Each structure stands twice: as structure tokens, then as C-alpha cells.
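Researcher: Next entry in the queue.
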Amino acid sequence: MTYAGVGLSDPTSGITSVAKIRYQISGTPGHHILKIQLDSAGFKQEYWTQNSFTSYVKYQIWIMESDSSMEFHAGPNSIQNAVDCFPSSSTGGPTISLLHIQGMSANYAMNLIGSASSASASITSSPDLLQMPSLTGVPASGQVYRFAPLKTSGLYEKSNPENTLFLYPNPSDGMITVEGGNITDSKSMLHIFNTLGETMLQIPVSCIGKMHQVLDVSQLPSGVYFIQKNNGSISRFIKY
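Model: Structure for this entry, 240 residues:
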């Protein structure tokens, strides 16, 4: 998870460090929460421009063991020079993103956009890390953003291990392999839905017996999708 425009910095580096990274693990087995806190971080661009750190930010990132969700908790902040703190932003706010990194580049990013008080999420494939979407305004202390595994809208998930579909690579840039369960009906279909429950593709199953099929999803726009075999289990994948 990233925050900022052109990097955060310890505003007293070389003297007495006040920008501390702390962590705490709370909860019980299966329900642990890892809390990572950044205290009093300044902005490098502001220092380069103003020759001093006049702005700072504090925040926490919570990672939930129980459902693999993540939360961004905004703390006290003081932004005196938004142009210097967030130089790549045209909306006067920070970039807050979840990045999928492979090697030295990002395959896709989930970015918060819109008002800092009522943000929504967008997915960008092959993002330019110097020109990422940003929020309008700065999150107020106490603002929480939650990133959670998506459920379908208008669909439901079934949990039957024998019929579960396994997808790889996931995320995918075009070709994805589907495995899982046995195929007994030559008329079986794979249905691919978007997050609104709309059917995007219907693909005939090409095998009988153990399921193993490679699908071409390159025509789908970047985003989150769900695949279902007939009326069985639903599995999620990301196309970037």
C-alpha cells in the first residue's frame, strides 16, 4: 500500500529521528490484526522546494488475518504546501493505492479516487507510478478506508471443495488456466461475470473428466471478474 506523491521522509533525519515505524499484533489465532503505524513523516519534495519540513502525516495500516482485508487509518496531519507534498496530484490530495508489483514494475494498481471523505476505488493496468490517480483533498484524522476481497453483486458463492475452480496465473494479462472438479456433461459452460453480475463471456467446456482448460480473456477490460462452471462454485480473478 502506498501513500503520498513523491515520497515520505523523516523530517529530522540526521538529528533525532521522530518519524518512527511501529507495529503491533493484536487479536486471537485466526483473527490476528497486524497494525503498522507511521509517525510524523515529512515530504521530500517540500524539503527540496522550501528547504524545510513544514508538513507532516501520520497513519496506520491494518491487515486482518480473518478475511485478508486491509484498512488505511488516517491520523493527525498538517499539510501546509499541498503542491509540494503531492506534486503529481491535480486534486490537492495524496495517492493511496494497492499495487501488484512484479520485478521492477507494477502490473496493476487499485487507487482511491474522488473526495477524501467519500472515496471510491478504480483499477489501473500498467500504471505510471509518477502519474497515479489521487484523492481530492487530504483524509481527515479518523478517516478509514477498507480494502476487502470482493463479493459479487447479484451473485452468490458456494463452497464445495470438490467443485472449486482453481485459476492461474491470477492476476492474468490475457490467458488463464482453469482447473478443478470433474466434467460429466459435454454441454457444460464456463460463465464469466463482472462485479455487477453482468455476463461478459460464456465459454463451452472443451473437456470431459478432470477439468483443465486454458481461456483467452485478453478482450476483457482491466478489472475484477468471477468465473462459474454451470451453477457451481464461483472463483475470482483479476485481469490487468
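Model: Confidence is low (pLDDT under 50) at residues 152-160.
Researcher: Noted, moving on.
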